[in-house]
Write a structure and sequence with these properties.
- Helix content is 33%, strand content 25%.
- The protein has 326 residues and is an alpha/beta fold.
- Helix 9 (267-280) runs antiparallel to helix 10.
- The two termini are 15 Å apart.
Length: 326
């Protein structure tokens, strides 16, 4: 594991940048219903930009490959991401598409609903991955999600594999992926809903189940060529399924970090970015998941996404108050 004084290994994030248009309300509307909001904000977002910022704020050396429009939202995203320490030199300005946007509703207990419009994210192509080939050469982890085209995701995964980097695939927003992409993924990160969709309904244990109940799930992932999987369970923590580990270490339950949630938007991205940063720093998958659990919990205690993400000191402080997670 590297020391704090050393230069961290590079994390390359390939994917989306969105302007988040967020309305806060007491409850989420039912279909066909109009309700009153009690606040509105435009913030930088997009799963990949969020993950890059989270990893950077936690000490990672991070580069982002993506596309934005030649518009004010694109400028806002480039500036905010760069302020967080992320290298945005490979984020392309698309002349023929607007910057992607996400329409987000957040209720009084922090739950959200999100609709995204890809915009320039849809223009990100395998050619953009090829143009960033030098970034992959010294990457320790390449972080991917599904807010851009599958052909681009697959190209980035192959480039990462060719360079010897760890491929971390966040299967969100959920979509079926080809077996070839699954084989290229060293670590799969899913929430419980996504895991159920991927494996088949009824396969994910309840929050109170013990490690033995997760054994069939581990086997199902392994049968599909996914040997290292993180399943996040929201307020109930997460589960590490590592078929490459020995014996009882193949299944580890990561307990939740209890906080008062204000806005859960982007908490999953904070988790993903934290995992990427800690894996790049040489930590084990279980250690990275335990660290990421605290980072994601802290992210949910503030409104917004990137502006809510903690730094490494904040995570260490909270972990010190919960020794069983250290």
């Amino acid at each position: 594991m590297s020391t704090e004084a050393s230069t961290p290994a590079r994390v390359v994030v390939v994917g989306s940048l969105n302007a988040d248009l967020t309305i806060y309300c007491d409850r989420l509307p039912q279909p066909g219903e109009t309700i009153h909001g009690n606040g509105f904000a435009v913030n930088p977002g997009g799963k990949s930009a969020n993950q890059a910022v989270a990893a950077s704020k936690l000490g990672g050396q991070v580069s982002l490959v993506g596309a934005v429009g030649d518009d004010p939202n694109g400028t806002m995203l480039l500036e905010s991401t760069a302020r967080a320490g992320v290298d945005v030199s490979r984020v392309r300005r698309a002349a023929d598409a607007a910057t992607g946007v996400a329409i987000i509703s957040v209720d009084a207990v922090g739950e959200n609903s999100i609709i995204i419009s890809a915009g320039a994210n849809g223009a990100l192509a395998p050619a953009d991955v090829d143009a960033a080939a030098d970034l992959f050469d010294d990457a320790a982890v390449v972080c991917l999600c599904l807010e851009v085209g599958l052909d681009t995701v697959a190209a980035a995964a192959q480039a990462a594999r060719d360079a010897g980097a760890t491929v971390l695939l966040n299967l969100s927003p959920y979509a079926e992926i080809p077996q070839a992409l699954a084989r290229l993924s060293d670590v799969l990160l899913v929430n419980a809903h996504e895991a159920s969709l991927f494996l088949g309904k009824g396969t994910i244990p309840g929050a109170d189940m013990d490690a033995a109940e997760w054994e069939p799930v581990r086997k199902q992932f392994a049968e599909r060529g996914l040997y290292r999987v993180l399943v996040t369970l929201g307020a109930h923590g997460s589960v590490v399924l590592d078929s490459q580990a020995a014996g009882t270490q193949q299944i580890t339950l990561i307990p939740p970090t209890k906080v008062v949630a204000v806005d859960t938007t982007g908490a999953g991205d904070a988790f993903t970015g934290a995992v990427a940063a800690r894996l790049a720093d040489g930590e084990s998958l279980t250690e990275a998941a335990a660290f990421a659990s605290v980072a994601a919990a802290l992210a949910a205690t503030k409104k917004g996404t990137q502006t809510a993400y903690p730094d490494a000191g904040e995570v260490r402080l909270l972990r010190s108050n919960h020794p069983r997670r250290s």
